[in-house]
Amino acid sequence: MSTKIVIVTGGSRGLGENTALALAKKGVDVIITYHSKKVEADEVVAQIQQMGQKSVALQLDVSNSQSFADFAAQIKAALKQKWNAEHFDFLVNNAGTGVHASFAETTEEQFDQMVNIHLKGVFFLTQKLLPLMADGGRIVNISSGLTRFAIPGYAAYASMKGAVETLTKYLAKELGARKITVNVVAPGAIETDFGGGAVRDNAQLNSYVASATALGRAGLPDDIGGVIASLLSEDNRWVNAQRIEASGGMNI
Question: Is residue 170 among the annotated active site residues?
């Protein structure tokens, strides 16, 4: 059986890095994208190679849909050069940033940024990469616990994630003919540098998250990467069009 190849967007840090490493541990080769942190991306690639898997890092700005055709061409070239392959197997749409602002104070610029990164980016990047994806492949879109429960300050961000959850169902329906499954993983509050590292560095917020979570603590990157890797395994081939929340039981 040939080795599977995954593309993880935003794989140089945080949940993306954790997901890339979790997949490498399961014997999957990994293409990661990074926005600006090339040094960190190269370190992730080195770790994956130390595990005996092939890996490459490519620069990508998910907010710039005009660059996606060129990025797809880079993927095609990398597949040929590194794997002598024409297709990859899995896509994890992870890359993103957050905006924390009340609904009343959210600017149009902030809103447009969230649209471009989390909705337009996911929509058109997936569209451009589909011809390079193998039949029987898998797509995992990363959402957020904030689509199920509301915490003031995340209206714009959470709205985009809600749209991605709806898009996921449509992708699952339309790509079913190619036996491609499409699911959502929705993390709860995680201690990463996301959103300026608020959950990790703000003791008051961290304490609030812990008190609202059944398992009594904020999430860690290691709580999420394995969920995504497991969803891409053969064991979960019949799971499709689902939203799987990994939040330790937050706000239940």
Answer: no
Q: Which CATH architecture has domain 5-244?
A: 3-Layer(aba) Sandwich (3.40)
- Rounded to 5°, the CA angle 175-178-183 comes to 45
- Supply the DSSP symbol for 13: S
Among 34, 157, 170, 208, the one annotated catalytic: 157
Check pLDDT > 80 for residue 193.
no
For residues 196, 123, 20 and 33, what is the CA-based torsion angle, rounded to 10 degrees? -70
Residue 170 CB partners (closer than 8 Å, separation 6+): none
Establish how many alpha carbons lie within 13 A of residue 74's alpha carbon, considering only the half-sphere containing its beta carbon: 14
d(CA 20, CA 15): 9
Residue 235: its H or E element? none
Q: The whole model's pTM is what? A: 0.96
Q: Tell me which amino acid residue 71 is.
A: F
- Is it the case that residue 1 has pLDDT exceeding 70? no
Q: Which two tokens stand for residue 233?
A: 């395994």
- Report the Cα–Cα distance between both ends of the chain, in Å, rounded: 42
Q: Where are the domains of the chain?
A: 5-244
Q: Are 92 and 6 in contact (CB under 8 A)?
A: yes
Q: How far apart are CA 249 and CA 252, in angstroms?
A: 6
- CA 18 to centroid of chain Cα atoms: 11
Tell me the helices (H) and strands (E) count for the chain, helix number first.
9, 7
Residue 192 has pLDDT above 90, yes or no: no
Residue where the block lists tokens 């890095």: 17
- pLDDT tens per residue across span 8-20: 999 999 999 999 9
Mean pLDDT to the nearest integer, 150-156: 93
